[in-house]
Amino acid sequence: MQNIGTIKKAKGKTPLTVITAYDSLFASMFNKKTDMILVGDSLNMSFNNKPDTLSASLEIMIYHTNAVCKGAPDTFTICDMPFGTYTDEKMALKNASRVYQETPAHAVKIEGGIERAHIIKALTNNSIAVMGHIGLMPQYVRSEGGYKVRGKNEEDTLQLIADAKAVEKAGAFAMVIEGVKTDAAKRISEAISIPTIGIGAGKDTDGQVLVWSDMLGFFQEFQPKFVKKYLNGSEIVKNAVDEYVKDVQTRKFPAEKHTY
Ligand code: KIV
Known about the structure:
Elements: H1 4-9, E1 16-20, H2 24-30, E2 36-39, H3 43-46, H4 58-71, E3 76-80, H5 89-102, E4 107-111, H6 117-124, E5 130-135, H7 141-144, H8 154-169, E6 174-178, H9 182-191, E7 196-199, E8 207-210, H10 212-215, H11 233-249
Parallel strand pairs: 1-2, 1-8, 2-3, 3-4, 4-5, 5-6, 6-7, 7-8
Helix pairs in contact: 2-4, 5-6, 8-9
This protein binds 3-methyl-2-oxobutanoic acid.
């Protein structure tokens, strides 16, 4: 299993692999497959059909993190801190401590750059491992007026590099770079010494993360450009359920071998 030390040392070597998971069943299929599992607050959208991640609560994240850790006990697991649970150092420390005390998660993830560096520092100073998250930050969707790709010009790229440096200096062991132009993400990755995990940030980050229900084709609402679909999960499930319904209606199921 990876740990903070091996994850940090992976920079510049074989790209790190991260997948999200929300429940024990799927997490058990991902166990030991990827370097890390992220219990992302994206579950609020893909699992809970909410329009954004903002209404995910700490209780929800703790519940799902416990389920994931149960299914994937041999994989380094990160719990996303939900919106509104880390607005100041004291609150962040109280809530991130709850994650450590109430789940076996190895780390927490926090969205934000320079403006959140003091929060990250408050956690890392108190032995809580933090993964940063810069670039397009879904928890900022309402204040920013939408999901906007970042790093489209020099000024924004320099801002992102400054954000990444601040997050690194605050003690984060790695950071997600989401929705950033490939060139900008490359420059950010080169500017810091901790691994960058990209999502919609091109091929030059130190690793990649995808939301499991997107990459396995279960989430059907929309498909972002950066998602590669490795399975047509929803089609497979729908066809199987159709077949089951037909079998029951035609008395093909249960067959002799399914009965006592
Ligand atoms: O919530 C999530 O799944 C995430 C990933 C998109 C990185 O933050």
